[in-house]
Design goal:
There is one protein chain. The protein is built from three helices and two strands, in the order H-H-H-E-E. It is elongated and about 95 Å long. It has a two-stranded antiparallel sheet. 44% of the residues lie in helices and 4% in strands. It has helices at residues 3-30, 36-39, 41-57, and strands at residues 73-74, 78-79. Helix 1 runs antiparallel to helix 3 (41-57). A hairpin with a 3-residue loop joins strand 1 (73-74) and strand 2.
Length: 112
């Protein structure tokens, strides 16, 4: 049985194993051998052990790309500054439609 089928098998038998354990603990309580108030943590331990077994045999999940990464960050090459939106469509050699304040920002003494 390969690892993925065994993981599915463990997931399928988790419920029945917990019910059998609960029944056994209740039988011990009714037979006055052990009180249930001392043995109920066995159920929590069983859940933990079964989950550990499932995760140990399960194949690793693929890691999705991070959709919340910083803009311009490339996982393989590090930081790449984002491009100005107009540079994506090419430059305008005539300067028509460009920023009226110029490349260095607004000039002092300009129009109000």
């Amino acid at each position: 049985m390969n690892a993925s089928r065994f993981g599915l098998y463990m997931q399928a038998v988790r419920g029945p194993l917990l019910l059998v354990t609960l029944g056994f603990l209740c039988t011990l309580h009714e037979a006055d051998m052990l009180s249930f108030r001392y043995t109920w943590p066995v159920l929590i331990i069983m859940v933990g052990v079964l989950i550990l077994i499932e995760r140990a045999v399960a194949p690793p999940a693929p890691v999705p790309p991070n959709a919340n990464a910083w803009p311009g960050y490339q996982t393989s090459g590090g930081w790449n500054p984002p491009q100005h939106p107009t540079s994506q469509f090419g430059s305008n050699p005539s300067g028509a439609g460009s920023n009226p304040s110029g490349p260095s920002g607004p000039q002092p003494g300009g129009s109000r």
